Amino acid sequence: GGAGGAGAEAGAAAAGDDSIRSRSMGISLTSFDMLAVLGRGGYGKVMMVRKKDSGNVYAMKVLRKRDITAKKQVERTMTERDILCSVDHPYIVGLRYAFQTPTKLYMVIDFVSGGDFFTLLSREGTVGERRAQLYMAELLLALHHLHEQGIVYRDLKPENVLLDKDGHIKLTDFGLSRFFEQKRTPVSDLNLEKHAGDGGSDAGDGDAASEGGGGGAAAGGAGGAT
């Protein structure tokens, strides 16, 4: 029934959130080397970073709490984080770590190196029938998974379909997505009231890193960053 389905969705989201919290214990800016700025937007920026202990490369979304609050984007930011915690699918970008400082939020997500579908179409004009079938099948599987989790995507466009190094898609940017039954997450979870000043713990989050990122694509924008 509907109640059972809603309960299952809530349980899956909670399990995903617990997994992210557990994985993010002890993670901070010092866990990463900042490699390049991939994009900038109204609320922050997206960095290409390398995790020091594993050497894995990710995209780090850096959001300023002050700007999120001032521009009334708190609920949207919380929903995006909740959605990323709820999904686990090969054709959707994954949230790997999440942490915060007194002034900023950090979401560490998959770095997808093959660019986006808009750039592909601009460069090649068209794609062959077999490739188009593959992309469409993977996209439908990604959307089906979101619907199974009670999520409506709401922002399907070529710029939000990334391609990995093997030519498979990754759906990204969940800023406009919503749960069918909107969940409410306490604002205090993000400590958004603590946005005065810029503590030393934010130092080294990539302001000095070079622009560009070797042609890769960030997994999601930072309030308009691409």
Quick recap:
This protein has 226 residues and is an alpha+beta fold.
Largest sheet: 6 strands, mixed
N→C terminal distance: 41 Å
CATH topology of one domain: Phosphorylase Kinase, domain 1
List the total number of helices: 5
Shape: globular
Percentage of residues in strands? 15-25%
Q: State the helical fraction.
A: 25-40%
The CATH superfamily of one domain is known as Phosphorylase Kinase, domain 1
Run of helices and strands:
HEEEHHEEHHEEEEE
Average pLDDT taken over every residue: 78
Q: Briefly, what CATH class of one domain?
A: Alpha Beta
Strand order of the largest sheet: 4-5-3-2-1-10
> Which runs of at least 5 residues are low in confidence (pLDDT < 50)?
1-14, 184-188, 192-200, 210-216
Query: What class, by secondary structure content?
Result: alpha+beta
Assigned CATH architecture of one domain: 2-Layer Sandwich
Number of strands: 10
Radius of gyration: 17 Å
